[in-house]
Amino acid sequence: MKFINEANITFPSNSSNESFARMSVAAFVSQLDPTVEELAEIKTMVSEAVTNCVVHAYENTIGLVRIRVQISDSRAVRITVKDTGKGIEDVETAKQPCFTTGSEDRAGMGFTIMESFSDKLRVKSAPGRGTSVIMEKKIIKRG
Amino acid sequence: MLSYSVDDDILTVFIKGELDHHTSSGLREETDKLIDRFSPIKTILDFKNVTFCDSSGIAFVLGRYKRMTAGGGILELTRLPRQVATIFDLANLGSLIRIT
């Protein structure tokens, strides 16, 4: 895949930055003229990935969340959300619908939503070494 | 983030704005306070003015559902914008909760 444009965003894992993160990625992706639905899906994917950093990776501490958004020459968007937090012991279990190690105000649906809305999702993680979530989604050309 | 009306033991909560992990804790507290105060038979959550919702919204709804049904009450959802309906469909909330 040949990338022709990219943006990098780094911010502390304050929950107030969840909105900033999804809006920033959506703003960058807007150059591909996505539909309202595509943009809503991208915002939701980013929101879930960033919330995982806030709630799980850094728990009650604050660490840095790094997002890289890349656009390819074939209109694919690759979004990488990276933290250096506690990592995931068993990625396959974490991805199961309704699985959560969070409190009862978490639904355990984050990975299910990210998988549903992206064309491709990869998770790289190791305990104590942080997590990278890499999501790809093609924006269909219209008109 | 919310306003409400009470009519004949029915509490309707009108939610406004973006529903994510950051905003859901305040919304949860305020909604639960209203449920405690009015002890409604039915609580209706109105999503018409919700502009964004992620999985935090699913947890918010499920938590209120458990709270209402634990006391023998009913929870209903109404006027879901398309983005909200898509998220709730992924969790199959419609199999548990009436959506109008």
Keyword list:
heterodimer, A: 143 residues, alpha+beta, Heat Shock Protein 90, five-stranded antiparallel sheet, 33% helix, 29% strand, globular, B: 100 residues, alpha/beta, Transcription Regulator spoIIAA, five-stranded mixed sheet, 5 strands
Short description:
The complex is a heterodimer of chains A (143) and B (100). Chain A has 143 residues and is of the alpha+beta class.
Could you characterize the architecture of this molecule?
The complex is a heterodimer of chains A (143) and B (100). With 143 residues, chain A is an alpha+beta fold. Chain A has one domain (3-138): 2-Layer Sandwich (Heat Shock Protein 90), CATH 3.30.565.10. Chain A has four helices and five strands. In chain A, a hairpin with a 5-residue loop joins β4 (120-125) and β5 (131-138). Chain B has 100 residues and is of the alpha/beta class. Chain B has three helices and five strands. A five-stranded mixed sheet of chain B has the order 1-2-3-4-5. In chain B, α1 (21-38) links the parallel β2 (10-19) and β3. The chains are: A alpha+beta (143), B alpha/beta (100). Chain A binds chain B through residues 15-16, 18-19, 22, 37, 40, 43-44, 47-48, 51, 54-55, 97, 104-110, 112-113, 116, and chain B through 18, 20-22, 24-25, 28, 52, 54-56, 58-60, 62-63, 82-83, 86-87, 90-91.
| Superfamily (CATH H level) name of chain B | STAS domain
Overall domain count of chain A: 1
Number of domains of chain B: 1
Query: What do we call the CATH topology of chain A?
Result: Heat Shock Protein 90
Beta strand % of chain B: 35-45%
Q: So how many helices of chain B?
A: 3
Estimate the mean pLDDT confidence of chain B: 96
Helix fraction of chain A, binned, reads 25-40%
**Biggest sheet descriptor of chain A:** 5 strands, antiparallel
Count of distinct strands of chain B: 5
Largest interface: A-B, 25 and 22 residues
Q: How would you describe the shape of chain B?
A: globular
The multimeric state of the shown protein is: heterodimer
**End-to-end distance of chain B, in Å?**
22 Å
Average pLDDT level of chain A: 94
Largest sheet of chain B: 5 strands, mixed
- Which outline of chain A best applies? globular
